[in-house]
C-alpha cells in the first residue's frame, strides 16, 4: 500500500510538472484577431527567427494594432526577457496576411513580469460602451473576414441605437458572411424602412434572399438597389449575383437579362465580366 501511495505521488508530481511545462510552451496557433486584448509572442525577425512580445488591441481608426514590448528567448521551462527597449514605443499595424501569434499563458506572462493588461489600454477603452466605438470594432472585424467576432459588439450597439450610421450595414454584413441569412433580413427591412435610399441595404438584402432561394424577392430587391445606386461596381455585383442564380437554375431568358446588365456596369475585363463569360461558355455543361 505504501508503494502504491509513493508511486501515485511520483506520477502526480511528474504529470503536474509536464502540464506546467506544456503550459509554458509557445504555441503559434492564433490569428491576430483571435488575440485582441492579449499579450502575444510573434516572430519579429523571420531571418533570425527572433521572437518578440507585444500586446494586441484595436485602434478605432487604424484597426488591429500590436504594441511591441520586448524580445524573448524560449527556455525549457518557459520564456525569459532578453531586451527591454525603454525608449521605444513601436506600434505595428496588422494586415490580413500577418502570421499567427502565440497567446501568452499566465505562467509566461508572470515570468516576463507583465501585467494582465497594460495601463495605456485604458486610453483606447475609454469609449468602449459608446455605440460609435462598438460599431467601429465590428467594422474592423468584418473588414478582415472575422465576422464571428464582429457580432458581439455590433449586437450590443444595435440594442442601444439600431439606426446609428453604418451599424445596420455592418450587422447585416456579419450575418450574411456567417450564412445567418434569416437574421440579416429583419435588420435590413428595418434599415430600409428608416432609410429607403441606401442601396447597400438592398445589396445585402438581395444577397440574403438569394441564398435562401427566395429568387423572386432577391430579383425585386436587386432591381430596386440598382435603380438607387450611383456606383457601377455595386450595380455589377448585384447584377452578377442574379446572373449566377439563373445560370444555376438554367433559366436562359432571365440569365441573359442579368448578364447584359452585368456587362453594362462592370468594367471590361473585370472579375464580374469574366464570370459572365465563364457562365456562357459552360452553359451546356452539366
UniProtKB/TrEMBL annotation:
Residues 1-19 form the signal peptide. Keywords: Repeat, Signal, TPR repeat. PROSITE patterns: TPR (PS50005). TPR repeats lie at residues 165-198, 199-232. The keyword Repeat applies. This is Tetratricopeptide TPR_4. It comes from Kordia algicida OT-1.
Amino acid at each position: 500500500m505504501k508503494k502504491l501511495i509513493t508511486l501515485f505521488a511520483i506520477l502526480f508530481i511528474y504529470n503536474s510538472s509536464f502540464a506546467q511545462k506544456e503550459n509554458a510552451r509557445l504555441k503559434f496557433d492564433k490569428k491576430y484577431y483571435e488575440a485582441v486584448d492579449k499579450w502575444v509572442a510573434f516572430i519579429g525577425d523571420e531571418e533570425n527567427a527572433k521572437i518578440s512580445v507585444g500586446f494586441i488591441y484595436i485602434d478605432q481608426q487604424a484597426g488591429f494594432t500590436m504594441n511591441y514590448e520586448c524580445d524573448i528567448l524560449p527556455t525549457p521551462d518557459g520564456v525569459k526577457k532578453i531586451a527591454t527597449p525603454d525608449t521605444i514605443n513601436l506600434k505595428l499595424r496588422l494586415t490580413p496576411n500577418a502570421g499567427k501569434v502565440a497567446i501568452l499563458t499566465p505562467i509566461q506572462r508572470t515570468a516576463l513580469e507583465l501585467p494582465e493588461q497594460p495601463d495605456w489600454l485604458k486610453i483606447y477603452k475609454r469609449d468602449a460602451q459608446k455605440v460609435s466605438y462598438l460599431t467601429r470594432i465590428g467594422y474592423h472585424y468584418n473588414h478582415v473576414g472575422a465576422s464571428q467576432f464582429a457580432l458581439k459588439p455590433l449586437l450590443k450597439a444595435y440594442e442601444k441605437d439600431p439606426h446609428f450610421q453604418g451599424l445596420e450595414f455592418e450587422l447585416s454584413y456579419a450575418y450574411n458572411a456567417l450564412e445567418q441569412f434569416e437574421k440579416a433580413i429583419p435588420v435590413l427591412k428595418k434599415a430600409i424602412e428608416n432609410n429607403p435610399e441606401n442601396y447597400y441595404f438592398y445589396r445585402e438584402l438581395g444577397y440574403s434572399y438569394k441564398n435562401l432561394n427566395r429568387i423572386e424577392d432577391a430579383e425585386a430587391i436587386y432591381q430596386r438597389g440598382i435603380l438607387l445606386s450611383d456606383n457601377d461596381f455595386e450595380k455589377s455585383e448585384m447584377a452578377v449575383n442574379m446572373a449566377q442564380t439563373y445560370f444555376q437554375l438554367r433559366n436562359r431568358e432571365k440569365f441573359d437579362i442579368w448578364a447584359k446588365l452585368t456587362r453594362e456596369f462592370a468594367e471590361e475585363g473585370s472579375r464580374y465580366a469574366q464570370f459572365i463569360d465563364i457562365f456562357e461558355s459552360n452553359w451546356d455543361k452539366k
